[in-house]
Design goal:
The complex is a heterodimer of chains A (301) and B (179). Chain A has 301 residues and is an alpha/beta fold. In chain A, strands 5-2-1-6-7-9-10 form a 7-stranded mixed sheet. In chain A, strands 12, 13, 14, 15 and 16 form a 5-stranded antiparallel sheet that branches. In chain A, strand 6, helix 4 and strand 7 form a beta-alpha-beta unit. Chain B is of the alpha+beta class and 179 residues long. In chain B, strand 4 and strand 5 form a beta hairpin. The chains are: A alpha/beta (301), B alpha+beta (179). Chains A and B meet through strand 10 of A and strand 7 of B. Strand 10 of chain A pairs parallel with strand 7 of chain B.
Amino acid sequence: MRLVFMGTPDFAVPVLEALVEAGHEIVQVYSQPPRKAGRGRALRPAPVQRRAEALGLECAHPERFDAEAVAGFASLAPELAVVVAYGQILPQAALDVPLFGCVNLHASLLPRWRGAAPIQRAIMAGDRETGVCLMRMEAGLDTGPVLAVRPVSIGPQETAGALHDRLAAVSAALIVESLPGLDSLRPVEQAADGVSYAAKIDKSEARIDWKRSAKALSDHIRGLSPFPGAWCEISGERVKVLMARPEPGMGAPGTALDEGLLIACGDEALRLMRLQRAGKAEVDAEDLLRGFPVSQGTTLA
Amino acid sequence: MARRFLHWPDPALSAVAEPVEAVDAPVRAIWDEMLEVMYAMPGIGLAAPQLGIGLRLAVVDAGSERAALRLANPELISASQDSVAIREASPNLPGVSEEVTRPKSVVIRYLDETGVMVTRELDGLWARSVQHQLDHLDGRLFIDRLSRLRRQRALERWRKVQRKTARKAVRTMGRKAQA
């Protein structure tokens, strides 16, 4: 089958690799164009583009999927397009190009967490299960009928980073096992109830609000770990909290209840376990405290 | 409750069940009935053939809060290398339980209640129950997983239990007749 692969970030890389490894013919890869990133703000190609080129595949990166891009896509005469976190809206004209249509892998149990940040949102909401859906693409945002599902349970201490890597591997397995029998999979319309949207993470969300419950904050911290990282101010310095665990304890929200970073929340308390000061590497709490003691009664903001 | 458990050695328990064509209202109704029967036992899984329904349908709920899996046409995709011995029993063979060794975790594929194809990894009691149900769909009871000797011993015990319940029934009937 003549495949086209469309994807951009790290999440899509294992899927591309698995398709190549399974021996599928990938006639073209699409990714978002190179963006300014890192020090010096140099133009940096997306992870999928880098991997595709390393694999000897041609990678196109149109700024927008306009008429010209659709024409280029059509000239490839693809039979199927596999789309994973591409980050571009495909117009109906593009969706109609491949003989067998376009399929999309999405990292949630649809219709829950449609949209941009399903992995982080699932953890931040305290979900205990998520997964990957393979769906037929429609013009709407993650609204297409579902062809196959792989549920995955979320560990109580699992971070978004760890879950991201697991779901990327599950996505790769799901597409490889689904492709040979794709026409036998019955598309099932998503349920009308249970819909939620996983909005992009806004920087302002990352600040820790100690008035929330310890459980909610620990989910919030896990869901934003390692990126962008939930943060608070300790002694006037901005510190990222990458892992924390609820523990019994009571006090004014934000107050250190001992010398070991047990911080009072809206209810109960939170033991901060892994942190990162600005410009430094992430460390366990005891290592941080060695050079940066936080005494009992200190108020974190 | 409309249906009862078949009792071994009913030949229907040894038959291979038929796949369902689609997940529709009748299939959902069977699942609901099976769940009612399973929770009433109480049990952690049930396969349709146990109630005399020759379809590849099963329910499993091995968790602490009610969250059942409804399975149509389930298949075993893979099983873990390491196995574990756990005691199993069946309402189709009352009074007998035996330790059965099976893989610790499994990956199964099935149609869920919306009719979509789901691939799911299960471990612990979930993995155990689903393997037990898959056997029922292929006409096997847990005693068919035992060595010949252990199987015979299990069946002797079952016969003994059967005789005892029969005698008790006769005595109860006798007392009722006197009263």
